[in-house]
Amino acid sequence: MGEGESNGLAGQYFDAAIGLLRTVRDTEGERIAEAGTLIADTVAAGGRIFCFGAGHSSLPAQDTVYRAGGLAVMNLLSVPGVVGVDVMPATLGSALERVDGLAAAVLDSSPVRAGDVLVIISLSGRNPLPVEMAMNARALGLKVIGLTSVEYADGTKSRHVSGTYLKDHCDLVLDSHIPVGDAELTAPGVEAPFAPASTVVTSAVMQAVVATAAGALAERGIDPPLLRSGNVDGGHDWNGRVMREYADRIFYRH
């Protein structure tokens, strides 16, 4: 009996997640390196970095913002009612993803400017919000990195009037390889598939991109603006210094 089998469904889930992580590591490594280099190029040139995701796709975006071991210059591009599931009813967030024109309004009222980088995370990439976010961001002169499951474009119908997906409007696409439906397990007596792995995989991809960016900056002799844990001695003083040095590129403090 294999280790996954001996641990039952929990072991099967871990095996599935590990398998997806290996797939992404082996197939997306070059593009992850390109994404990290693009972020390093932007930081070195004085540009700013923004991340956006809707619903549960916002979790990997939030995971890179203001966190220990991360770059201080990662900013969340927030859309009220869409980022997270704190809006009531929670289903409103899903509905807002389908509203035409919302992305343009958000970008117009945000601090983004030409030369910045915007990472857009959308598992399916089929809704108007991420599609229009990418289209409008590129029109404003931003570089767009899309993190999505390309399989969804083959297995679902776009909800945008153009019939296109997020992947069609990016400077660089990172494929999460998550299967349509985002559920890794089935079991006797359980009618619906269950156990999603998109958050695990997409968060890992984002951290790999940030790690690559930090290394690329260091290779150029630039001290990457990394944050330390506030729960270790000296962490707050370190973070205060970094935030002062990069205050013009940090938008989550005010």
UniProtKB/TrEMBL annotation:
Coiled coil: none annotated. CDD domains: SIS_RpiR. Residues 39-227 form the SIS domain. InterPro entries: RpiR-like_SIS (IPR035472), SIS_dom (IPR001347), SIS_dom_sf (IPR046348), SIS_GmhA/DiaA_subfam (IPR050099), UPF0309 (IPR022951). It holds the Pfam family SIS_2. Belongs to the UPF0309 family. This is UPF0309 protein GCM10010361_63020. It comes from Streptomyces olivaceiscleroticus. The lineage of its organism: Bacteria, Bacillati, Actinomycetota, Actinomycetes, Kitasatosporales.
